[in-house]
Amino acid sequence: QVQLLESGGGLVQAGGSLRLSCAASGRAASSSRMGWFRQAPGKEREFVSSVLWTGGSTYYANSVKGRCTISRDNAKNTVYLQMNSLKPEDTAVYYCAVYTAGAWNYWGKGTLVTVSS
Q1: What are the angstrom distances between the C-alpha of 103 and each of 32, 56, 64?
Q2: Which of 45, 54, 68, 111 might form a disulfide with 39, Cβ 3.0–4.6 angstroms?
Q3: Closest to 80 (Cα-Cα) out of 39, 115, 50
Q4: Which residues of the chain have pLDDT under 50?
């Protein structure tokens, strides 16, 4: 089992920044990657970014590319998402997830990010 705990969400004005954290416990070390997804009100959950535990290759959705940076601390089993130049359309619940056995099988409970205009 893997447990994920997100933190760092909140209310910020447009143009501001937030840093999300996701601490993984349990068998997260057996996964190949961790990532962030988000779900805005009335919309489907969408991919935001992911990072490989080994090598650190990163991937971003076009909507956040250039504004967000994902990073990891292998020793702490923690992944971060630095979000800059936030826009109202970034408002969503952000979820951390772990990729194992070919799928995003483990999810956190989410942290709410609200960007005011």
Answers
A1: 10, 19, 22
A2: 45
A3: 50
A4: none
In the prediction, which pLDDT does 87 show?
97
The Cα–Cα gap between 26 and 45 comes to 25
The backbone torsions φ and ψ at residue 74, rounded to the nearest 5 degrees and listed phi first, read -60, -35
The reported pLDDT for the residue numbered 68 is 98
What digits encode the pLDDT tens for the residues 105-117? 999 999 999 999 9
- Find residue 25's DSSP bridge partners: 3
d(CA 21, CA 35): 11
Residue with tokens 């056995």: 101
